[in-house]
Design a protein that fits this description.
Strand order of the largest sheet of chain A: 1-2
CATH class of the largest domain in chain B: Mainly Alpha
CATH architecture of the largest domain in chain B: Orthogonal Bundle
Largest interface: A-B, 63 and 59 residues
Distance between the termini of chain B: 52 Å
Low-confidence stretches of chain A: none
Shape of chain A: globular
Number of strands of chain B: 2
CATH topology of the largest domain in chain B: ABC transporter involved in vitamin B12 uptake, BtuC
Shape of chain B: globular
Strand order of the largest sheet of chain B: 1-2
Mean pLDDT of chain A: 85
Order of helices and strands of chain A: HHHHEHHHHEHHH
Order of helices and strands of chain B: HHEEHHHHHHHHHHHHHHH
Structural class of chain A: mainly alpha
Strand content of chain B: under 5%
Mean pLDDT of chain B: 84
Helix content of chain A: over 70%
Radius of gyration of chain B: 24 Å
Number of helices of chain A: 11
Strand content of chain A: under 5%
Number of helices of chain B: 17
Oligomer: heterodimer
Distance between the termini of chain A: 54 Å
Largest sheet of chain A: 2 strands, antiparallel
């Protein structure tokens, strides 16, 4: 048990920030899940792998650049760009190969295909690179002005919070005000009708996968430089947790995914901080099972009535 | 049948995959020594292969479209698929079945203990595949945490032996019952969920069981597992190691035959038809007066029973259990068996289990690529042949007036 002394407030704040950091990462991945689900109603099981591929690409590119002696800011920007680009390319390709041919198939068919894709991608990275945990370089510099608060929040945590907030804001603006965003919302509402009013549905779906994968890759880059090591299997757990977050908030709803991610991140941080760290993943899975049983429509989702 | 446009597109596909796989396949960094090795060979290999694959898939789709067109114009009769032509002809099936049975029965006499052990594993997957086939194939409930029930059975035997010194034969029904109990416990709250949510909840449940087994050391001895589990006894006679493995092999054969018989009878029973009806259209099914929850629960519990019993066999075969044997990948392999074999098809599942488990064992050079191929098989089957290698034959009834 944790002692309730003068330190407990500081411990609480530390856990709070750790929860918010986790939440931001989950949000970056959960957005991809929720956008894809909103548009084609598919649980994109391979989405966690985009995060893993993003982290691996970041590791490879940053190592190569640092060996060739580029300055740190340039490495950081180029690495982020490369991770987002390649993850987006993988997302696009996976949709074309594994989901598009199954657009009109029964519901479980694309889900099985997605599981297959996830296993395939994990083992592809395992064979192409390594099965060991690889050390990930600390890409984010330590901020000198944050030194006094180092016990509460590190510079990586702060960067994660800020980047996640900026990315989410941009995404909201994109979906609310741009032409693509409008087309995305139209497709999500009614695919046939969107086709009739001249929306290129196939292209919009591709764009959704591209954006979602790029966000997941940014999440992968940030979390990898936070934790300091990566492995081919990190995408599985992260994917399940982000999915939990998306369902918690109400799958298909973008603000819901963000809210759900923060709720999940905070729950995990406090549960591991105050209860036990052995069962870290059990908390997330139990939360998932409980939500799906008691409130499958999520916190912000609307219960849908199926008409026959 | 291939036009110039197709060839251009194939080249573009090749280039795209070369770009796509560039960082992961070509560059390999050694982070401790700070060196980079460039593997350019991989790049051209990927480019060439994806080019060929594209051309092949174009050819395949064009061939299929042409065939559909001929069928539509009535130039060609629809050919029944190969397995229907062969598997429904007694002159073909009987010799096939009898040679197969003879081969399996004589197997331990001609092959080493090592081979027999591999065969036992394969037969175990046959049972698991047939059990999951009830849930996924027949009732259409995608269960991604099937391995949890397998773990329940294995740990039931291990723990019962450890604490109460129970024998294999006492543990076998208990393992099955515990599996069914867990199936009902899990199924009761989650079966009203829609198909894809059900898949994720079962996946979460499977992981919870594994994580609890890993962390609750006082109960399960944690990651180090439980060792020294006895193999099944033969009427109190002490058997040598080889003899007991051979004995286990014959038990496994009996188990497979029993499973096949039960699953076959179940499929054509009243409840089996209710499962298929539920899979096809649950709303229509409810309108016909079928209790949806109870029917689904039966499927879940029966599937879990077989997993529980297979788990007891697993513990007896390896004489050691630990949580690492019950990961999600195991569930994925079993799912792959059902999907490859053809959902709902018993012969298909048996063939697929033997194929998927034995092939990687005998093609050792490709063993590393096993999971890669499994993933690709899941995707490929869904796209090109969702009914599996051997599709089910619905039993037809003729009306005699």
């Amino acid at each position: 048990m944790h002692q309730f002394s003068g330190e407990s407030v500081e411990y609480f704040i530390e856990l709070l920030f750790s929860g918010l950091t986790r939440g931001s990462i989950y949000a970056l991945i959960a957005l991809g899940y929720t956008m894809v689900y909103g548009i084609i109603g598919l649980i994109n099981f391979a989405h966690g792998e985009m995060y893993m591929i993003g982290a691996f690409t970041a590791l490879i590119v940053s190592s190569v650049l640092s060996i060739y002696g580029l300055p740190l800011p340039a490495i950081l920007i180029l690495t982020a760009l490369a991770a987002a680009t390649w993850a987006a390319a993988y997302g696009f390709t996976v949709e074309r190969l594994a989901y598009r041919p199954l657009r009109n198939a029964p519901r479980l068919t694309p889900l099985i295909s997605a599981i297959g894709m996830s296993i395939f991608l994990q083992n592809y990275v395992l064979l192409a690179q390594t099965s060991d945990f690889l050390p990930f370089p600390a890409l984010i510099p330590d901020f000198a002005w944050l030194e006094p608060y180092a016990a509460i929040i590190g510079s990586t945590d702060l960067t994660i919070l800020v980047v996640a907030a900026v990315v989410m804001l941009l995404l909201t603006l994109l979906i609310k005000y741009s032409r693509i965003g409008k087309a995305m919302r139209a497709t999500a509402q009614d695919q046939k009708m969107a086709l009739l009013v001249g929306v290129n549905v196939d292209r919009i779906i591709s764009i959704t996968f591209v954006i979602g994968s790029a966000l997941a890759a940014i999440g992968g880059l940030l979390i990898a430089s936070h934790i300091g090591q990566i492995n081919f299997s990190i995408g599985f757990i992260a994917g399940i947790k982000a999915f939990t977050a998306a369902v918690l908030g109400g799958i298909g709803s973008i603000p819901g995914a963000v809210l759900g991610s923060f709720v999940l991140g905070l729950t995990e941080a406090f549960a591991t901080g105050y209860v036990s760290s052995d069962y870290e993943d059990v908390f997330a899975f139990s939360l998932l099972v409980l939500i799906l049983i008691f409130r499958p429509s999520g916190l912000l989702g609307k219960a849908t009535v199926e008409k026959v | 049948m291939l036009t110039k446009k197709d060839v251009c597109q194939a080249l573009r596909t090749g280039l795209w995959f070369m770009f796509l796989t560039f960082p992961l396949l070509v560059i390999k960094v050694n982070p401790t020594e700070q060196t980079v090795s460039w593997r350019w060979g991989n790049m051209f290999w990927v480019g060439g292969m994806s080019c060929l694959m594209y051309l092949f898939s174009r050819y395949f789709t064009a061939y299929r479209a042409a065939k559909q067109e001929r069928l539509r114009l009535g130039m060609e009769q629809e050919a029944r698929s190969w397995n229907l032509r062969f598997l429904q002809r007694p002159a073909f099936v009987l010799p096939l079945l009898s040679t197969g049975t003879l081969f399996l029965l004589a197997f331990p006499a001609f092959f080493s203990t090592y081979q027999v052990n591999i065969m036992i594993t394969a037969l175990m997957y046959v049972v698991l595949g047939l059990g999951l086939n009830i849930v996924v194939g027949v009732a259409g409930l995608l269960d991604l945490g099937y391995v949890a029930f397998y773990a329940v059975g294995a740990y039931a035997y291990a723990l019962l032996h450890l604490h109460f010194d129970l024998s294999f034969w006492a543990a076998l029904p208990i393992g099955g019952l515990l599996g069914a109990l867990f199936g009902i416990l899990l199924g009761f709250p989650v079966l009203r969920l829609r198909g894809d949510y059900l898949a994720i909840v079962t996946l979460g449940f499977g992981e919870i069981i594994r994580l609890v087994l890993e962390n609750w050391s006082a109960f399960s001895r944690g990651p180090s597992g439980i060792a020294n589990i006895p193999r099944p006894g033969f009427f109190g006679i002490d058997l040598s190691l080889e003899a007991s493995i051979t004995y286990l092999y014959y038990l496994m054969i009996a188990m497979v035959l029993c499973t096949m018989f039960v699953v076959n009878r179940l499929q054509h029973s009243r409840i089996g038809r209710a499962w298929v009806a539920l899979r096809e259209d649950d709303i229509a099914c409810q309108a016909m007066g079928i209790d949806k929850t109870r029917t689904k629960l039966t499927a879940f519990a029966l599937g879990a029973t077989w997993a529980g019993m297979a788990g007891v066999f697993f513990a007896a075969k390896t004489t050691f259990v630990n949580p690492a044997s019950f990961t999600f990948l195991e569930s994925a392999i079993i799912l792959c068996i059902v999907v490859l074999g053809g959902m709902g098809s018993i012969i298909g599942v048996v063939a697929a289990a033997l194929l998927l488990i034995l092939l990687p064992e005998y093609l050792r050079t490709f063993a590393d690529y096993r999971m890669l191929v499994f993933g690709a098989v899941l995707v490929g089957m869904m796209i090109f042949r969702p009914q599996g290698i051997i599709s089910t034959v619905r039993r037809t009834y003729t009306l005699n007036r």
